[in-house]
Amino acid sequence: METPYFSVICVFNDQDQLNDILKSGINNQKFENFETVFIDNRNGEYGSAAAALNNGAEMANGEFYIFMHQDVKLPPEYLSKAKNYISEIDNLGIAGAASVRKAEKGNIERVNVIKHSGLLRDYATDISEPTEVATLDELLLIIPKGVFNEESFSEEVCQGWHLYGIEYSVRMQKKGKR
Question: How far lies 150's CA from each of 43, 85, 90, 128, 171, in Å?
Answer without folding.
Answer: 30, 23, 17, 30, 12
